[in-house]
Amino acid sequence: MASAGSITLNESFYSDLVLGRVEGGDQGYPWLEATVTKTATMKMGSIMNEAQTEVASADAASAFSVLVWCNVPLDSVEVGEEVVVVLAVRGATLNRKLLKFSDNVAVTDAAANALEDRGLKITSHVYP
Question: Would you say 55 and 115 are in contact if contact means Cβ atoms under 8 Å apart?
Fold first, then answer.
């Protein structure tokens, strides 16, 4: 779990990761359902590239989407196994404190900017 000031955030809770969303018809689809191969570092909040693989901090500019939902707990999926997930691609406000690179480096401005350029809003302003 991550801590944000006086509150404790649980990275497995959708409501702690996705703070809001806009589902306007002129934006296109805000969510992308994808089949991905589970890695040892994959979690809710994993930053993904357009090929739907995790992004390392060195490739921050390739950030395309964020893993926000899986119908089974990701911890129950074996590494190397395929799993269907939902990726936020636009129109969602996401909690920056819960976004993750595959190499466990804190989210950089380059990644946040790349995601915002795609239509996601990244914020660290989370209040209890």
Answer: no
